[in-house]
Design brief:
The protein is an all-alpha fold and 563 residues long. Helix content is 80%, strand content 0%. It contains 24 helices and no strands. Helix 6 runs antiparallel to helix 17, helix 8 packs antiparallel against helix 9 and helix 14 packs antiparallel against helix 15. The longest helix is centred in the C-terminal third of the chain and has 37 residues. The radius of gyration is 31 Å and the shape is elongated.
Length: 563
């Protein structure tokens, strides 16, 4: 084998890795888009149950074919305060199991005797998917085409990598060099380093599979390379955690410690097996016996076995692991003011998982709506009683509304530019700019009502009992409108939208009636002109609050075509 052939083999390997990486990204983004609704609800409802957390992590990773995406998503949830460190740990455990699905798929594609190999059959899906993506006008079919194209390209890349490995296997110098690398620790380090460089444990595992199948390395060597890839896969999580909160850093650290613990455990077991049997029994011999004649299956099954056993061993130790990382990243180093305004449900890391980020954006808007209506109720209480014990809370909430208005819009702008957003989510995100503005305006009108109460307190005169009764009725109507609005908005409930419109019309009629009653009271001398002007301004502001609330509910009309 000459120099030209060696260079050709190296270039073929690089081409295979490139296609494989692109295929993984294509599959991941399209699978996220296709399963976005399920992902949104699954990850947003992380439970305290450890086993359920493992299941969520495993299913989520199997669905989107990316443990890195699942881990980054989990870090985002921890950073936003949605789930605890313990819950995050179990999801990460599950992600390590879910990622082994890729190795099992790749191993399946390596079968083929005298007939057409499964790799060739699966590769053909690339063409079918490309046709669907290019010529279909339906967004769902385009997404399905992207999934199929990615799936097929996975095996195109695999074929190129396997072909290059066969070329290398013909080089005696390469075989001799690889055979000399028998130290398990060195193999683990090599697997970790290569995975860290390409940031994909799937590629490292697939290369190891190809090397074992072509006889370039032994199964035992492939096993240690695969174990090292688990450590290298933590790089993505570590990068995501560096720029985030202390809990996000802790989550990334949990991922690293978990994978390192699994490798250490299996290294110890491997050493004990070799020592007690004189080297006759090792992991390679065990899986060769269990799955004879199928080296690809042997390594893929070890990969699954390794992660499942590690999870079983670490699950009971979760709380201890959490306590360890809390000590490693102590609270004293976090100087962030806990009362400072912040986004609770979204953060920078969630931009890497668009479908979930969209759902969390809706939750953040729901929180903003809750803050706005709370301030309205505080303002009504202060204008009714002329007591201001809640003024400080009111002002902090108003600052938070202004912060959300600014930062959430910035987040949505960046999220909207992401290629992994489905057509439906694009339409929804387009409505959020107006929605956030509507909610911010509700806060402004509540602030106006507070100013009226302060002016009345300075004048020493409050509303009459009749006026207060009408204000309380108006407050009840707006509360009803808020409840129908949020049901319509959060559940895309068109019946609730109709009910919101009905209540908004009642509010319009009621505020007109309030004006008539005020004029009557003014003519009878029951209330003064100064207090009366504040009363009219209050009813006018309340009517505008109702308009902004119903605007929020009406945004679901743009999503009706996706039902």
């Amino acid at each position: 084998m000459g120099t030209t052939a060696v260079i050709s083999a190296i270039l073929t390997l690089l081409a295979g890795i490139g296609i494989f990486l692109v295929a993984c990204q294509m599959m991941s983004s399209n699978l996220e888009a296709a399963s976005s609704e399920r992902l949104k609800h699954m990850f947003a409802k992380a439970s305290k149950s450890k086993l359920l957390g493992v299941g969520i992590g495993a299913l989520g990773t199997a669905a989107i074919q990316s443990s890195g995406a699942t881990t980054v998503m989990t870090i985002g949830f921890v950073n936003a305060g949605i789930i605890s460190l313990s819950q995050a740990a179990t999801i990460i455990y599950g992600a390590n199991i879910g990622t082994t699905v890729t190795a099992q798929i790749v191993a399946l594609g390596m079968f083929g005797g005298g007939g057409i190999s499964t790799s060739v059959i699966f590769s053909a899906f690339a063409g079918l998917g490309a046709f669907l993506s290019m010529f279909s006008k339906n967004s769902s079919w385009k997404t399905m085409g992207g999934i199929l194209a990615g799936f097929g390209m996975l095996f195109v890349g695999l074929s190129l990598m396997s072909g290059s490995m066969e070329d290398f296997a013909n080089l005696e110098v390469v075989k001799t060099f690889l055979a000399s690398i028998g130290n398990p620790i060195l193999l683990v380090i090599l697997g970790a380093l290569f995975t860290a460089i390409i940031q994909s444990s799937s590629v490292m595992t697939s290369i190891a599979l190809a090397m074992v199948v072509t006889g370039l390395i032994s199964l035992e060597q492939g096993i240690f390379l695969t174990m090292g890839s688990n450590i290298g896969s933590c790089v993505v999580a570590i990068i995501a955690g560096i720029t985030s909160s202390k809990n996000a850093k802790r989550t990334a650290l949990i991922h690293l410690i978990f994978n390192c613990a699994g490798v250490v455990l299996f290294m110890i077991v491997s050493w004990i097996l070799g020592l007690s049997t004189g080297g006759r029994i090792n992991f390679g011999s065990i899986f060769e016996t269990a799955f004879p004649g199928a080296p690809q299956t042997q390594l893929a099954m070890f990969h699954t076995f390794f992660n499942v056993i590690t999870v079983i061993c670490m699950l009971p130790l979760t709380e201890i692991l959490v306590n360890i990382v809390i000590k490693m990243v102590p609270d004293s180093k976090d100087i962030t003011d806990p009362d400072a305004p912040r986004l609770h449900y979204v953060d920078e890391n969630m931009l890497k998982t668009p479908p979930v980020a969209v759902q969390q954006t809706k939750r953040e808007i729901g929180r903003m709506a809750s803050l706005a209506i709370e301030n309205f109720n505080r303002a009504v209480h202060m204008v009714s009683t002329l007591t201001f014990s809640e003024k400080e809370v009111f002002e902090k909430t108003e600052q938070e509304l202004n912060f959300i208005n600014r930062d959430l819009v910035d987040f949505v702008v960046r999220l909207s530019e992401h290629k992994g957003i489905s057509e439906r989510d694009h339409v929804y995100l387009a409505t959020t700019y107006r929605t956030v503005r509507d909610l911010e305006r509700i806060g402004d009108y509540a602030e106006n009502i507070l100013e009226y109460s302060e002016a009345m307190a300075e004048g020493g005169k409050g509303f009459s009992e009749d006026a207060l009764s009408e204000i309380r009725t108006l407050q009840v109507l707006i509360t009803d409108l808020y409840n129908y609005t949020m049901k319509a908005y959060e559940d895309e409930d068109f019946k609730a939208l109709d009910q919101a419109n009905e209540v908004e019309e009642k509010i319009d009629d009621f505020t007109k009636m309030m004006e008539d009653h005020h004029i009557k009271r003014l003519s009878e001398g029951i209330c003064s002109a100064q207090v009366g002007s504040q009363y009219l301004s209050l009813s006018s502001n309340a009517e505008r609050i109702a308009d902004h609330l119903v605007n929020v509910a009406k945004t679901i009309r743009s999503l009706k075509k996706f039902k």
